[in-house]
Amino acid sequence: MAKRKKIVPPTDAEIKAEIKALRELQPHVRRTNAFGDDNQEAIGAQIYVLEQRMDNDELYDRYEPRDDNREDTSEHKLEHALDAHRWMTGEGDGEKPSDGWRTLDQRHRR
């Protein structure tokens, strides 16, 4: 059985650098995905999670879709907010949140 590599949570400086990377990518990422979900809002959710150093309860309180049809919540935003939280806490696969958006960066499309 292969040993799973332990992921170390990022430092404060690495979190700040990731926030900067997400802010730089956000306006250049394709606005919506094939399902009409807003990618730029999902990046905004990731930035907010990292800036606020949100815990799981805070994250779900803010981003979990509810039956009241709040427009500020969606599965897409929740999923990406959770990705940022997992990276921030060292629970994810080690991939930075910005890594997942690089393929949608319109600056590199020709």
Summed up, the helix count is 4
Q: CA-to-CA gap between the ends?
A: 44 Å
Helix proportion: 40-55%
Percentage of residues in strands: under 5%
What can you tell me about this protein's structure?
- By secondary structure, the protein is mainly alpha-helical.
- It has one domain.
- Helix content is 46%, strand content 0%.
- The protein is globular.
Task: Describe the protein's topology.
Blueprint: H1 12-25, H2 39-52, H3 56-63, H4 75-89
Helix pairs in contact: 1-2, 2-4, 3-4
Attribute tags:
46% helix; single chain; 110 residues; mainly alpha; 4 helices; globular
In short:
Helix 1 (12-25) runs antiparallel to helix 2, helix 2 packs parallel to helix 4 (75-89) and helix 3 (56-63) packs antiparallel against helix 4 (75-89).
